[in-house]
Write a structure and sequence with these properties.
The protein is α+β, with helices and mostly antiparallel strands. The chain has one domain. Helix content is 31%, strand content 36%. The protein contains 2 helices and 13 strands; from the N terminus they run H-H-E-E-E-E-E-E-E-E-E-E-E-E-E. The protein has a 5-stranded antiparallel beta sheet, covered by helices on one side. Strands 10, 11, 12 and 13 form a 4-stranded antiparallel beta sheet that branches. Strands 3-4 form a two-stranded antiparallel ribbon. 17% of the residues are buried.
Length: 223
C-alpha cells in the first residue's frame, strides 16, 4: 500500500473513531439546557404571579368603584335621606327620590313638579332607594359581604333588588379606631348637604389577596 493511501486510510479511521458524543460534551449540553429551562421557568412563574396580583387588585377595585358609582345618581337626586337605625346606622341609607316622568320632547326622564296652594312649585315625592350592607340572601347584616340596592315604590312595595358588590369587608379604622362607616353625612343629618360613601372589597385568587377601599362624596342636588 502506498504512503498516500495509508495516510488517507489513517485519517478515515481517526474520523470514524471520533463519531459519537463524549460524556463531558453530554454534561455540558445538559447544563446549558437546564440553565435555559430554569431561566424560562423563572420568567414564566414571575409573570404569572404579577398577572395574578394585578388581576386580583383590578377585581377588588372594580367592585368597590362600581358600588359607589351606582349610588351617585340616586344620592344626587335625593330629596331627603334617612340613615339606618342601630346597629345599621353606619351601613344603611334610604333616599327619597322625586317622581320622574318621561318627557317625549326632551326624550328623557324629568322630575315631576307641582304647585302648592300658594302657587309655589315643589317636587312631587316618588319612591325611594335603599343601599345597605347585607348577606348573600339580601338581609341587612352589618357583617355581610354584599352591598345591596333595593328600589321601593311609593306604596312601600319592593320593585327591584340587586347586589352591587360581593366580598365586602369592614372599612379601615378612622380616627376613633373603629371601622369607618359606609355612609357619613355632612355637616350632619339635619343640615345635610352631602353624603360620603366608603366601600372596601377584598378579593382572593389562590394565595393572592387584595383589599381595595374606594371613597367618594356626593352632594344632594334636591335637598
Amino acid at each position: 500500500m502506498s504512503t498516500t493511501r495509508r495516510f488517507i486510510r489513517a485519517r478515515q479511521e481517526s474520523g470514524a473513531a471520533r463519531i459519537g458524543v463524549s460524556l463531558p460534551e453530554v454534561l455540558t449540553v445538559v447544563m446549558v439546557l437546564s440553565l435555559i429551562i430554569g431561566t424560562v421557568s423563572a420568567i414564566y412563574i414571575s409573570s404569572m404571579r404579577a398577572w395574578a396580583r394585578g388581576s386580583t387588585e383590578a377585581y377588588s377595585e372594580q367592585k368597590a368603584s362600581w358600588a359607589i358609582e351606582r349610588m351617585f345618581p340616586d344620592i344626587r337626586l335625593g330629596m331627603s335621606v334617612v340613615p339606618g337605625v342601630a346597629p345599621h346606622e353606619a351601613s344603611y341609607i334610604a333616599i327619597q327620590l322625586p317622581q320622574r316622568n318621561f318627557d317625549t320632547g326632551e326624550n328623557a326622564y324629568l322630575n315631576q313638579i307641582a304647585t302648592d296652594a300658594n302657587g309655589r312649585p315643589y317636587l312631587v315625592p316618588g319612591g325611594c332607594v335603599v343601599y345597605y350592607r347585607g348577606d348573600a340572601a339580601g338581609n341587612a347584616d352589618i357583617q355581610g359581604d354584599h352591598v345591596w340596592r333595593r328600589q321601593v315604590a311609593a306604596d312601600g312595595s319592593i320593585l327591584k333588588q340587586d347586589s352591587l358588590a360581593d366580598h365586602v369587608v369592614d372599612n379601615p379604622p378612622d380616627e376613633s379606631g373603629q371601622p369607618k362607616p359606609m355612609f357619613i353625612y355632612w355637616p350632619d343629618i339635619y343640615r345635610l348637604k352631602s353624603v360620603e360613601v366608603t366601600v372596601s372589597v377584598r378579593e382572593r385568587q389562590g394565595t393572592r389577596v387584595s383589599e381595595t377601599t374606594i371613597n367618594g362624596e356626593i352632594s344632594l342636588r334636591n335637598r
